[in-house]
Amino acid sequence: MSTATAAIISCGNELILGSVVDTNTAWLATRLSEMGIATTLHVTIGDDEEDIQNAVLQAAGKAPIVIVSGGLGPTLDDVTRQGVARALGVDLYEDPVCLEHVKGFFARRGRTMPDTNRVQALVPVGAKAIHNTCGTAPGIRAELGGSVIYVVPGVPLEMQEMFARSIQPEIQAQGGGQAIVKKMLLCFGAGESDIANQIADLMKRGRNPTVGTTPHEMVIGIRVVAVGKTPGEAQALLEKDVAECRRRLGDLVYGEDQTTLAEAVGRKLLDAKLTVATAESCTGGWLAKSLTDLSGSSGYFLCGYVTYSNQAKAELLGVPAAMLEEFGAVSEEVARAMAMGCKARAAANFAVGITGIAGPTGGTAEKPVGLVYIAIVGPSRVEAHRLSFGEHLLRWQIRDRATKVALNMLRLAVLESQQQ
Amino acid sequence: MSTATAAIISCGNELILGSVVDTNTAWLATRLSEMGIATTLHVTIGDDEEDIQNAVLQAAGKAPIVIVSGGLGPTLDDVTRQGVARALGVDLYEDPVCLEHVKGFFARRGRTMPDTNRVQALVPVGAKAIHNTCGTAPGIRAELGGSVIYVVPGVPLEMQEMFARSIQPEIQAQGGGQAIVKKMLLCFGAGESDIANQIADLMKRGRNPTVGTTPHEMVIGIRVVAVGKTPGEAQALLEKDVAECRRRLGDLVYGEDQTTLAEAVGRKLLDAKLTVATAESCTGGWLAKSLTDLSGSSGYFLCGYVTYSNQAKAELLGVPAAMLEEFGAVSEEVARAMAMGCKARAAANFAVGITGIAGPTGGTAEKPVGLVYIAIVGPSRVEAHRLSFGEHLLRWQIRDRATKVALNMLRLAVLESQQQ
Lengths: 420, 420
Hints:
2 copies of one chain form a homodimer.
Chain A: E1 5-11, H1 13-17, H2 24-34, E2 38-45, H3 49-62, E3 65-69, H4 80-88, E4 92-94, H5 96-107, E5 122-124, E6 128-130, E7 139-144, E8 147-152, H6 156-173, E9 179-187, H7 192-198, E10 210-216, E11 219-228, H8 231-249, E12 253-256, H9 261-272, E13 276-280, H10 286-291, E14 301-307, H11 310-317, H12 321-327, H13 332-346, E15 350-356, E16 371-377, E17 382-388, H14 395-419
Parallel strand pairs in A: 1-2, 1-3, 3-8, 13-14, 13-15
Antiparallel strand pairs in A: 4-5, 6-7, 7-8, 9-11, 9-12, 10-11, 15-16, 16-17
Helix pairs in contact in A: 2-6, 3-4, 9-14
């Protein structure tokens, strides 16, 4: 059994029923991985004593660190402490310090502890209670075979506080395992397999770092995870692969980790002291919204027009009525005229025009749902793209993708203008 | 082994490492529970053949329905089909129909299938491929002992489509357990405890239906779940409690289930044949984007102005420069002038003006981050609200909440105009 693995058990009928999405596990796995501990197993079960008992026994046989979350509340369906006690083969006893804590929690709020909360002071014999600074339910620390079992509340805030305060220091003191460092490179402008083909040798199984790709709504993430005996060794391995990916993929890489396309573009505009204005039809303001997501966006975003009707396109942007008549609102000509009218009115360095059919209705054989024209006017030239996103996509996907393609065209146009 | 249970296995290093939160499981468990099938086990494992093999064997021993998601991509780290084949004790073969499907997927996009995608046509011997209508990876249907194993892609859209189209009908045909029906009532305009106090008797534990509240970014959801021997019995119980909640909460309830505030407002405007235009500063187009999320929004949305700079507020909306000077851009006066200028220019029935400080920078002692003014001009009157969202909120939260409050003010203004 390696010293650098952990298992996570999430308890709760609401998780099993799907009414609540379990965010605790991702949070815990991230914290553990930052300490060099790999989560090798994650099990979600309902509030059932026997299921909890079995899951704890199985996890303790597999990993030296087991974290059990949820099911420590005061109600009858919370049976995690009973299930853990069964796995340990011991009874529960009422811990007087815990009882005082629970009573005190209510007293500070001017209330008397309901009798139902008394159960929260129960701890398996031989185990230790873990103090809860922001709720009533104490955690539990127990040992089983060679493993340490930590039981934490399911309420994210209480769980996070207890982990950071009482569990993380203990795990860290025991030296944890190897150092694991991660980076996500974010790409836009090519499909997953095209990108994977360019870095296929780095993605071979068994290498260190491990390199994998994940697509998410047109953004392709390249996940690089390096393991080393020391953080420095892991970091050096990581940086070598990240640099190699960047070298091969060039401008396809727009950012790292949590960066959005809009942030990447916004930073570039800010750094270059350039401004942008937008003229949107089918995206309905999504591009303007994205460009103003970033704090400081008033430094580059001047104004946006959402010209949904033909009348608005003509009146607000000066698109000629004859052009709308001849080519239709969804046409390259109109996209260009929207961008040019917007640039002139806003006196911006760049302007973007978007017009298309987001559906699900409004498509024709000639101009189907998913057809979008995007035009960018920069300091030196106008560029327009015709995009067919496909009729199988949902309205929000077509709007989201049109927004992202526009942001990426703007990113490349700004890059190009700087290289001139 | 009951016939009404299922196990879910999620595969992916990104899930185990915590870089991606698994939303597929909650979605699947919800769909299964709607069919009367309880998910009794959920396991998350990394992309490892042996771990996948073991998880499938364990799950098949526990539940008659096993759903495995993720790891069907074209890259080397995707090994779910190999792991499932090992659990079945068989080899993989290349399915010619699947291969044509994968090739066709690329062909329709004018591309040649990369060789790496060939692996997506592999299916365990004796198993059946499941058609993927919106991606390259086919699913797999296999039998193991008395259990049926369904393997689906990890991309949520592809997984959902495949489940709804090919898996749900088969499970339904085999009959589920008890009938469980659910409804979510969505409220806006009061806090969770205010709403819970008004329906406290319905929220008592042990009742059928069970009624619970969940807050999510200012929207309070009331979850009603009814169980019955037949769908009709469950439905009747559900409808009784839903009607009672609606009766007590009145206009606080804006919709049901997945309805957004923007959809609720859009429907009302469409039905009443009324139009709206927007003038936004701090929300940067988010309100226009929300109002155009709905298909058919051209029926009520005329145009939007994103006037980020003072110059844009003056030039595009006619806000007097002297007013901007005297009261500042973030003031009730300017919000009113934005809305009125917008209404006059767009000739709409309603116009909304929003100006505020989304932060994290730009706040002062007098006008802190989170201060937002929203004005609505309707057919008969102007109304303005001052909102203090609090400096502890993130930029996106302040923008999101300002957008939602504006939508809710618009909803109530439309309701009021109809009652006159």
